[in-house]
Amino acid sequence: MRKDGNRPRRIAELIKRELAALIPRELDDPRAHHVTLTYAEVSPDLGHARVYFTLLAGEAEAGPVAAALNRASGFLRRALADRLRLRVVPELRFEFDRSVERGDRLTRLIDRAISEDRKGHKE
Fold first, then answer.
1. Taking a C-beta distance cutoff of 8 angstroms, is the pair 39, 96 a contact?
2. Which residue among 6, 69, 90, 122 is least enclosed by CB atoms within 10 Å?
């Protein structure tokens, strides 16, 4: 039997899409309503899923929001099981996505280097 290497990726995208609809509608915690899911990855055995999120408030609220989402992971997993046609729904783990902030920081560094380089050429 051939293993489908794309299956974890497809399931991750499906989980992300369903969770994006579920979280604001089903969770009572108001902090969870400001969550944007950015990426999900599922282990090759389909047993675990990491779901990455960002917040409009930034990293300051990331810890409490991640804790709230992880506390609700069992509830969210059961809700996914009701909606998805999977034999087993992966265990969910939520983590703050720092890649967006890292990208912003790198962009600022590059802009500053270009600005300093231009100043050096004018002199």
1. no
2. 122
